[in-house]
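Second attempt. The first submission of Calcineurin-like phosphoesterase domain-containing protein had a stray character pasted in from the spreadsheet, which I only caught after the job came back as garbage. Lesson logged: always re-copy from the clean sequence file. Corrected sequence (286 aa) follows.
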Amino acid sequence: MKKTWISAAAGTILAGAAIGYSYARYIEPAKLVTKSYKLTSERLPKAFHGLKIVQFSDLHLGYHYSIKKLRRLVRHIQAQQADVIVFTGDFADRPIRLKWKQEIVDCLTMLHAPLGKYWIYGNHDYRDGSEAIVAKYMKAGGFTPLHNTAALLKRRQEHIVLAGIDDVIRSSPNLHAATQHSDEDSFTILLAHEPDLAENVKHLPVDVQLSGHSHGGQVRIPFYGEVIVPPYGRRYVDSHYEVGSRPLHVFVSRGVGTTRMPIRFACPPEISIITLQHGRGHVEIN
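This time the job returned cleanly.
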């Protein structure tokens, strides 16, 4: 009787583990969600009221993320009718292994936004010294790089600053260079792959930081939280944070792909929509 009970219990545990793994491996990584934020700020020029930014991050193309999945992602992003599209790093898991394919370029060129498409490097984009491969794809796809530099987005004779910095882990980020066009009178958005850089950014005239890198932990245990998070993605892991006295609004995307292990649990992939509004400061999350 005792052996029968033990065998039954072991069988139940193994079956549960198998089901859990199958869900984390095959089902949740395909359940792309859209996280929407509305950020209202008196600092935002009125001409930019209603500006819609779509952020996607951490594709890790080639590591269990196929061109077929990329096509679906692009269609979903394009359906959001963004004013600006930004990609915040880690285009490929190991770019040197990513053979040039026109299909990838075709996917990227399908994305359109009236105020432009912009991108920054992530740490994986520098693996094996292959960042030039990523830059070639993004340029061919119509994306503008923001590597320690900034662009002015203009509407009706008003402007905001969209800045970007290079990767913290594998390159040389220069916040001073990236924010040289920013001051207390300019509403500034910064693209920074690693979210924990916010501890440095909070001292600068920056209003919004858009980041990825952490994958939201990729695997989250109920009532416990994320299991493993990477360096520079441990303080700010997922969703929205207000940092410093300004405050700096930090939005952290869970990203689209996976790395290390091709699984997600209680942490589905996502794109983010950040809608900016002029008015008394507050944030809504949907």
